[in-house]
Amino acid sequence: MRVGRAAFTAVYVNEIAISAGLLDEIDSKPCRKLRLLRFCEGRKCRTDRGSINRSFKILGVQRMSILKTMIAAASVSLAAFGSAGLASAADLPAKAAKKAPADLPFFFVIDNRVTYSWMPKGTDPGMFTVNPNGSINGKTTKSVYSFTHFDAWAYGTNFFTISMFKSDHNDPASPCAAPGVTITGGAADCAGATEIYGLFRSTFGWNEIFNTKAFGVGPLHNISFEVGADANTENNFLAPAKRDFVAGLQFAFDLPYKGYFNVAPLAYKEINHNAFTQCGLFGAGVPGVTCHADGNVDYKTTWAVETNYYMDLGFLPESMQYFSISGRAGWYGPKGDSNGLPALSGVGRMSTATKVEFNSEPIRLTLDASKALAGAKYSHLVDVWVAYRYWQNKFGLDHNAMPGVCTVAATGQSTNSCTESTVYSGITVKF
């Protein structure tokens, strides 16, 4: 994500195409041809995180330089006219006044896109059913509807994405606490849950802030300050209300064929909500020890590393240059007890301590469908893509422990709901 580049998570170069990933968590909704971190898409996202063709930057510098030169020249001329007197100035031949070039707009790149994607094997921790043969089905089919915005200005970039995830019945809405079962133990066929997840990332380039090229050496294109936040809500019984904040640096590198690779070491802070830990749900409890007074969980500040890349497949024959690849990965450090109640945590597979979370979309293959069908003029107006998504220790939950969520408490058998591994596909339209 940077100014002067040929999109979290995912936005990329020349013809702009946004697909979070990044971001999508949110789900990775990576963007295409403008450098930016998505990540989906999110921690659910991809995310789809971006940058702009260096020509935008050169154009802006040149136009500003021209404007400054014209102003300086005009000042010198006026001084000369003043010293010569009005009469001599009147004797000069009349010339048509030249119109000053217009300034660049505040946002010289604005890109908006909508995406629909289908995920056949998504997961939601703790949501699973037991098959007649005793095996466990922890998979959840999800339809994802996303809006993504990217813009660039003189000192950096902004990326925002918001997605709605609609699950099938294996991830039920409240009052079901699990598929087919309400919190009181009664049988019910609850509809699939709906989640809303939003993410933004902003960068402030050092080369632009300090008006220098010192932070571009070799393949290193720029260093930027990066800040961002995620937020979500879902209508299941858990009633999550995630609020996280990130801040740190982004290092942006050039790759061949108008490509890039970004890496961002960040500080990460999360606050969430867990209705299962609400005091009074299973008895009075002791606030802060066995339950939370309001169900809110304040996690410890930890570290994070977010990366993303993009590259056109420029080595293909001219007649096949409609393809590009992109991807993202994010690591998020342990943030304390998953329930915020360490006194209740066990040991080994009975532990509820969080682990390092790995949220990735290592590869996405994109076809510029509008360019292939209608020509370069319509490049990236419509993109179709297929991607692979891998998410271990989802939301920081230990996939080998966390009894009753990631494993069956009595046996230790995995519920297959805390690791997500799926191929999924989608279509993105620019407007």
Strand content: 35-45%
What is the number of helices?
Answer: 4
CATH architecture: Beta Barrel
Calculate the mean pLDDT score and round it.
82
Low-confidence stretches: 1-94
* H/E element sequence: EEHHEEEEEEEEHEEEEEEEHEE
What's the total count of β strands?
19
Name given to the CATH homologous superfamily? Nucleoside-specific channel-forming protein, Tsx-like
Largest sheet: 12 strands, antiparallel, barrel
Shape: globular
CATH fold category name: Outer membrane phospholipase (ompla), Chain C
Strand order of the largest sheet: 3-6-7-10-11-12-13-15-16-17-18-19
Gyration radius (Cα, Å) is: 26 Å
Range of helix content: 10-25%
Describe the structure.
The structure is a single chain. The protein has 431 residues and is mostly beta strands. The protein has one domain (17-79, 103-430): Outer membrane phospholipase (ompla), Chain C (Beta Barrel). It is built from four helices and 19 strands. The strands form four sheets. It has a twelve-stranded antiparallel barrel with strand order 3-6-7-10-11-12-13-15-16-17-18-19. Strand 12 (243-255) and strand 13 form a beta hairpin. The radius of gyration is 26 Å and the shape is globular. The model is unreliable at 1-94 (pLDDT under 50).
